[in-house]
Amino acid sequence: MSQYKILLLIVGAFALAACSSSNTIPDPDPSESTVDPSANTGPMDGDGLGSGEAVDFEGELPMIIYFDFDSSNVRPGDTDVVSRHAFQLANDGGMRVRLEGHADERGSREYNIGLGERRAQAVRRLLLIQGATAAQISTVSFGEERPQADGSNERAYELNRRVEIKYTN
Amino acid sequence: MHVRKIGWGLFAVLCFASSANAQVVIDIISGEVRRTPVAVVPFGWEGQPAELPLDVAEVISADLYRSGRFDPKPEEDMLQKPTSGADVDFDDWTILGIEAVVVGSVVQTGDNAYTVQFQLFDPYRQTQLVGYRMPASKGTMRRAAHRAADMIYEKLTGIKGVFSTQVAYVSAEKQGDRSLYQLVIADYDGENENVIMESTDPIMSPAWSPDSRRLAYVSFEGSKSSVFVQQLRTGSRIRASSEPGINGAPSFSPDGRKLVLTLGGIDGNLDIYTLDLTSHEKKRLTTHRSIDTEGSWSPDGRHIYFTSDRAGGPQIYRVSANGGTPERVTFEGSYNARPRLSPDGDTLALLHNDRGNFRIGIMDLERKDLLILSTGRQDESPSFAPNSDILIYATRASGNGVLETVSADGLIRQRRSSGQADVREPVWSPFPRY
After folding, report:
1. Is B313 domain-assigned?
2. Least CA distance to B217: which residue of chain A?
3. In terms of domains, do B258 and B171 share one?
4. Residues B352 and B406 reside in one and the same domain
5. What is the rounded distance in angstroms from the CA atom of residue A72 to the CA atom of residue A66?
6. Shortest CB distance from B314 goes to which of A105, A111, A121?
7. Which residues contact B156 (CB under 8 A, 6 or more apart)?
8. Out of B268, B294, B396, whose CB is closest to A152?
9. Judgement on whether residues B143 and B286 belong to the same structural domain of the protein
């Protein structure tokens, strides 16, 4: 039971992290941005923990793509998310994005760098075929070195097999 | 440079794997190895002040105990405490069943100059097995004691001692929502810990140069992977490789002039390359679109062993150091990675998925049989001691990475606790050069 609560906390903290400023799309023109407090959602917002300023862009656009075990295929449910990122990049050639690939902790560290890179490249290819240019995208793989969730259990592994989409300008 | 103490507290506690004691630091996993009873008599001292600058006998005793092959008798059991060979009464030792006796002394010869001398006797044959004298300062006396232990160990077992060697490893400590990564070098026994590099971005894959003077490693400073080579004495470093995409998994050639490393390029196809550290010339050894990584040179310099998932799951392959067609080396099981050759060239250490548990295995390259040496669920990063007789690797305990050593026959396994830090990727140094 307590494990379930910890899990909720992890998921909550995670969702919150997804709302933090570093994970949110910077608006191309800050002077015209509309900050909608209600868009700064997350399960723990009601506790007053959502101190970050989330900038709304066509609703909440997820900045993290998750992957199945031993897979670098973008799940069908996430292809739309990637398409929306591609749309943004295609519409503003000045935008730059860094795709950070990650793996869960199992197995060898350098091989996991390879698995994280494979995931980042899968997202990169989807962005490229939908109009983003190679010059806009860089990839980096952190392998298992930067877990989103601690712990040696399936839930943590699921949260750690991911690509984080980070706008760098 | 910031120096931090972790202390691999090695307690003189012996117990079995089934023990309920959570603080077990040394355990013997199977078939009790007979420990040879020995005695290291407290060393004599001639100099000022009245106390020895370092209890040399204690350091030697601890080394011999830690090897798992010796049982040094406590001082209070000794019937005599001679400090030179002339005063050894062999019957006083055979009556206790002691099979080897070490006596010695430290003599001050100058302001910060000493002579450490010791003799090793077989009391049953009533003969001296080895006697040696070496200069030391306060700063090098511990090293001199380890060197004495190396000589004693080699004389008694026929295997070179590794008590004078060092281990490099990476430690990570949570600091709020970030981690502080440190690249650490410590003596074999955990003493003299030195942080040689630290960063809030990950540090990975340390590798010793054959002369022990340099470490290659991967650093993600600036959210980009680069391979660095750092001089240990001066702390100066060069960015050896910083191509677009992945720069990873460095390992030195036996002559120290080249690195093997992994480059991914902008399209993320990880392949094995060699890099000449003088001419900066890179040579691509593999071209497969699968993940090829974790290259490691054979001690004779002829082959590079690496991990590839070209057949589905990761397996070990080898390719000529000049390039060519890779040949597959491992076939047992669905996951074999992180190859490291023993310094004698006979054995391959690897990471093997043993029914869902990631464990350290060694494969005899001639007989091709795989022996699983570790017992954890998330073990990783095996590295041979320079005598090819012991391996060090990382395992997990209470959510943290800790280091373990295991003898190549699997009989003696020890855990080194490390406080709160998450410790990983231990790599054993070559033998020191005197």
Report:
1. yes
2. A110
3. yes
4. yes
5. 9
6. A111
7. B36, B38, B70, B100, B120, B129
8. B396
9. no
Q: How do residues B235-271 score in pLDDT, each as one tens digit? A: 999 999 999 999 999 999 999 999 999 999 999 999 9
Q: What is the CATH number of the domain that holds B298?
A: 2.120.10.30
SS3 B109: strand
| Percent of chain B whose predicted confidence (pLDDT) is above 90 | 83
List b or e across B399-423, with b for residues whose CB sees 16 or more CB atoms inside 10 angstroms: ebbbbbbbbbebbbbbbbbbeebbb
Paired tokens of B364: 């005899």
Determine the pLDDT at residue A58.
55
Judging contacts by C-beta atoms under 8 Å, the chain A residues touching residue B383 are none
Of B225, B293, B399, nearest to A111 by CB-CB distance is B293
The pLDDT of residue B416 is: 81
Contact flag B220-A140 (C-beta cutoff 8 Å): yes
> The domain containing residue B371 runs over which residues?
166-428
Q: If you average pLDDT over every residue of chain B, what do you get?
A: 91
Give tens-digit pLDDT for B326-380.
999 999 999 999 999 999 999 999 999 999 999 999 999 999 999 999 999 999 9
Same domain, B148 and B226: no
Residue B387 included in any domain: yes
Contact B318, B308 (CB under 8 A): no
B90: in domain: yes
Q: How many residues does chain B have?
A: 434
B176 and B321 co-located in one domain: yes
User: Which tokens go with A107?
Assistant: 């197995």
> What is the chain B residue with the closest CA to A135?
B266
Q: Residues B227, B248: one domain? A: yes
A98 to B223: CB separation less than 8 angstroms, yes or no? yes
Query: Which CATH number belongs to the domain containing residue B79 in this structure?
Result: 3.40.50.10070
Residue B28 counted as domain residue: no
Give the pLDDT confidence score for residue B34 in this predicted structure: 86
* Complex ipTM value: 0.90
Task: Determine the average pLDDT of the residues in A92-111.
Answer: 97
Which of B16-33 are b and which e, b meaning 16 or more Cβ less than 10 Å from the residue's Cβ? eeeeeeeebbbbbeeeee
Residues B177 and B102 in one domain: no
- What CATH number belongs to A61-169? 3.30.1330.60
Q: pLDDT at residue B191 above 90?
A: no
